[in-house]
Write a structure and sequence with these properties.
It is a single chain. The longest helix is centred in the middle third of the chain and has 36 residues. Helix 5 packs antiparallel against helix 6. The chain has a domain of about 200 residues: MetI-like fold. By secondary structure, it is an all-alpha fold.
Amino acid sequence: MFKYIVKRLLISIIILLGVSVIIYTLVRLMPTDFLTQKYGPILQTNSGFREQFEKFKEMYGLADSSFAGIMSGYFQWLGNLFKGDMGTSFIYQKPVAQIIGENMWISFAIAVVATILQFLIAIPLGITSATHQYSVRDYATTVFTMIGISLPTYFFAAIVIKIFAMDLGWFPNTGLVDPSKDFGSDFAGTMTKIGDMAYHLILPIFVSVILSIGGLMRYTRTNTLEVLNADYIRTARAKGLSEKKVVYKHAFRNTLIPLATLLAGILPSLFGGMLITEQVFGIDGIGGLAYKALRQGDIPFIMGYNMFLAILTVIGTLLSDIMYSIVDPRVKLGK
């Protein structure tokens, strides 16, 4: 196991280097950059500003857009990264590591709650759908989940806001806390603020859960159907075991084996934020900040954020392989 982990980590370093080259090149090849967007209007009205603008581009490392210039900028960024410096964001004027550390926890809280609810709802739905194949329950569950899969996030979120926030007035439609309230700095005020934040996050979490349970439910249903048709399940039934024991003791355990592979995608999504959801609900999470940085060509933040997600993806994939071997003892990790 130890040799396998070390080997995977060494391979991951090569993969991360390749990912960083691709991301940096794509960002530098964007049709516009941060300085052009910021000072473009001034250049159109003040031709004398051109010289100062060129100095700004040299200072930000954006003056040379040739292949050699892009590679020079990349190796400069890589050298700083090895020193523990992810750079300073052009837009937010703060170290990238500090921005990620300060803003990812709201996104993390939303994603954790949504993921837990997703598994608690989708897996039982998938099992009951499989055990009642072609029944009304199966068709109803399938239709419900397919609707969730098909609806775009921004469209479904807009419907939810219209119904539950604007028409019924049950929940706030935007923001993380009520700006009109003064919560204070004492313990009671802190707890009240946390409660207000939880109240504001109900709709975003609801949208995330409804739109995400469909894929996991269908995945669980398919795996359960395959397991229920296995020979050992027929043997268990022939021995006179109850259907409940057959399904939840024998079939369910083997259904979890393919689900272990989903861990690879869960970890980066927990910290990466829900970009569209955060935008629609006006939540200042890491996803919303990344979207703004991408639109304005904030190279240090884009690089830091995407490499952060790439590292989480590599770790998630490794954990997925390890979990797979734990869930299924027949699987042996390669040396």
